[in-house]
Amino acid sequence: MVWKKMGLTDEQIQDYFGGPAFLAWVRMGNIRNWGGPLSSEWREAQANLQKKILERQRQMGMVGVLSAFSGRVPASLSSLFPSSNISQLTPWNEFQGNLTRDYVLQPSDPLYAEIGSLFISLQSSFFGSDHIYNTDTFNENTPPSNSPQFLSESSRSVYSAMSSADPEAIWLMQGWLFVNEKWFWQAPQIEAYVHGPPAGKLIILDLAADQDPIWMSTDSFYGVPYIWNMLHNYGGARALYGNLSLIASAPVLALHSPNSSMVGVGLTPEAIEHNPVIFELMCEMGWRSEQVDVDDWLSSYVVRRYGVNSTNAQEAWHILKDAVYTSTWQWAQRSMISQQPELKIPSYHLDWNATETIMSLRLLFIASSSFDQPQLQGQGTYLYDIVDLTRQVISNLFDDLHTLLANSYLLSSSPSRNSLSEIQSIGKMMIEMLQDLDVLLASNPNYLVGTWIEGAKAWASSPSESINFEFNARNQITLWGPNGEIDDYAAKAWSGLVGTYYVSRWQYFIDEIELAVSLNQSVDWNSYSKGAIQIGEQWCVDQSPFPSEPSDVDTLSTVYS
Q: What is the pTM of this model?
């Protein structure tokens, strides 16, 4: 509605958006025009859903946060207002052409205030307002100047655009920019930017306080109210990780620190539905004013989660607490299973204590035996955890096989080694392991790629839109872009995805290594990379259906075998 009132046509507005799986990054100004178009039917359905969400929130006494204008504009706006200060951002990651370099109107331009005020007014007329608005002007985008005066005026102008339409407006701002580009956001720049709006009119989300707390280096954001957040997860990476002791203490320490301006706690993950023990504890911290004894809390958690008190389950979880849930840096921890196959192990790979992880799985498995609590065999939360822990054990073992495979290839020129035989044997075990994992994941409703794809298609209002929405769903969890610009960022451990896409990639990788060794040559890695991307491209446009209901395979029998 805003852009039409500013004089733009539907066609001129369309490339401002992206597909539904990528809108978060569109709103941040990172990409544009990828995965679209968005139909008017889809936009209307989303607006109606938003109204229902806000209505329910308000019934429960919750405060709804709406959007505000960030400065992002359609490219065609510059032709209607040629004298306005509209510029293009730099490319984001590996995206090129008209898929990135978004157009941004500088907050100091008078047109910014006009659009920002119109945005709030039209939005409030449709959704109502609780007077709190979120917008982020420099999220993974470097400001054009590091002048404290420029930054202060910029944030002041952003808030003025809100308050001109809503005098009660409060700006809720993500603090990710201070984490993502620390080289730019030094103390003078941060202090100037957060003090641009009037006192009490800005709340900052210390977005990754569990990993990189900015409040500690800024004297509690120089007195500006902030919320301590646990980010924990990037891209929905499926792995067991987190830091229970930190979650149990850090928010309380921040609250009671000298000159603290902390006003709350929050969760800001890029995905949920993983590591429930971490989220369970974090959700309690808003009601706690003292640090939590993790051992006592975990003992209670096991009983609450399973409905019974199992000695073996208790022991399993306390082993996991020390072996897994002590990681302090949690950037995208994941197995090589879901990563583009290569010889080296990525720098963000986390080494689990494999022996203790296996021990905890054995204990958790025994917990449902006739010697302990057999009723657990039908308990959903127990079966979820059994699958997840087995998945982690398999992932650990797969990574070990990957290391053996890489070493066999690198040492293949040694005349004393029968590397081809070794590689063939290891490669066979790796593919069988992936196939076993896919069977296991298929036994539980929480680990199905079919659920993801069918959920995306359900929003479609036409056959062509259904095809595009399925492409969005497939592309986000694989190539994440037309050519693997940030491939596997949102990788998942889901049945169907493992059994087709990951098996195909790893088989291709193993075949290329076997062929090179058999010919006494080196792998042509450039050619290999192109072939791997082609596998992803083919998977993204494939429309073969996947089950959205679990298989008839018995989970516990599969784990045992």
A: 0.95
